[in-house]
Amino acid sequence: MAARIGALGDADRDAGHIDSAAAKYRRACAYLITAERMQASEHPERRRAYADMLATFAHYIDCSGEPCEFVEIPYETSHYPALFSSAATANNPAPPCMVFCNGLDSVKEMVFLAGIPAALRARGISCLIVDQPGVGGALRLNNLPAIVETETWAGRAVDWLEARPDVARDRIGMMGWSLGGYYAPRAAAFEKRFRLCVAWGANHEWGEVQQRRRRNEGENPVPHYWAHVMWVWGQRSIEDFMALSERITLTGVVERIDVPFLVVHGENDRQIPLEYAYRSHEQAVASPRVDLKVFTAREGGVEHCSADNMESVRSYITDWIHDRFAEMT
């Protein structure tokens, strides 16, 4: 399907119908993101699908003209890739910026296509979407696994942003969805240059969920699941991963968040228990403003990371970010 839609995009582009080509490349990219993530990590077709996705996304950006800069963030002796979408204008030459991190198996291109940077730009806020260690190009191309101490790689993103003249150094925030609901609060708790934080899915006890999943769902909760998480976290055995998972918790961590903190959760999230949203909210005792928003059937966005209706949640989050940054000025 991706190849067929992509070929139609090629034909539109060759005919000079650039807007039509952009729409088809966007759709083909979404198909490739889905196809790639369904394969086993070592499957050769997965590597080809990922390369095709990167190329198709680049075609989409080229034809659509959306503000998107392909960048590399220095990290240890390597780097991880990111997409920078600037909201800078003549009247607002150095706007605030959000760092957006992925979850367990999303990629930066998925975040971009979900409209996150566009929604932030509409509110005068730039966005740096990172393929942090454990996901996307960091894992697939540079063999960088996930780490518990997310403030390490998040701090490198802040370093990169602070070096840019088109970013307000004193208004940089951190956010993430799904497992990013662990990564982002952990980063904001220990990297004190972040001025606010959003958890889109309250992954307060991700390690506990993995322990429970193995007990209740066994060796194959979904195809390749345990092989996937071992790949993401750089573990050689399920026993090593389970031992590591005990450290993936926000208990004792969110207490250190001392900036505005938003927790967003769907009431029918079947991957992350709703109780964790209340736990993150209750434990963020040092935050000057901690808000909890649980989306209901009336609003939509009740499933995991709002897969059923992203618009209402995306708008709520970006409005909240806008208002908090505005208060800082």
In summary, what is this structure?
With 329 residues, this protein is of the alpha/beta class. The protein contains 13 helices and eight strands.
Oligomeric category:
single chain
**Low-confidence parts lasting 5 or more residues at pLDDT below 50?**
none
Number of DSSP-assigned strands: 8
Total of helices: 13
Strand content: 5-15%
Kindly name the structural category.
alpha/beta
Biggest β-sheet: strands ordered side by side in the sheet: 1-2-4-3-5-6-7-8
Instruction: Compute the separation of the termini in Å.
Output: 48 Å
N to C succession of SSEs:
HHHEEEHHEHHEHEHHHEHEH
What integer value in Å does the Rg equal? 19 Å
CATH topology group of the largest domain: Rossmann fold
Question: How many domains, in number, for the residues?
Answer: 2
Explained architecture:
By secondary structure, the chain is an alpha/beta fold. It folds into two domains: 1-65, Alpha Horseshoe (Serine Threonine Protein Phosphatase 5, Tetratricopeptide repeat); 67-205 and 249-328, Rossmann fold (3-Layer(aba) Sandwich). The chain contains 13 helices and eight strands. The protein has an eight-stranded mixed sheet, with helices on both faces. The termini are far apart.
SSE layout and pairing:
Layout: H1 2-14, H2 18-37, H3 44-64, E1 69-75, E2 78-85, E3 97-101, H4 108-113, H5 116-121, E4 126-130, H6 136-140, H7 151-162, E5 172-177, H8 180-190, E6 197-200, H9 206-217, H10 225-233, H11 238-245, E7 261-266, H12 274-283, E8 290-295, H13 310-328
Parallel strand pairs: 3-4, 3-5, 5-6, 6-7, 7-8
Antiparallel strand pairs: 1-2, 2-4
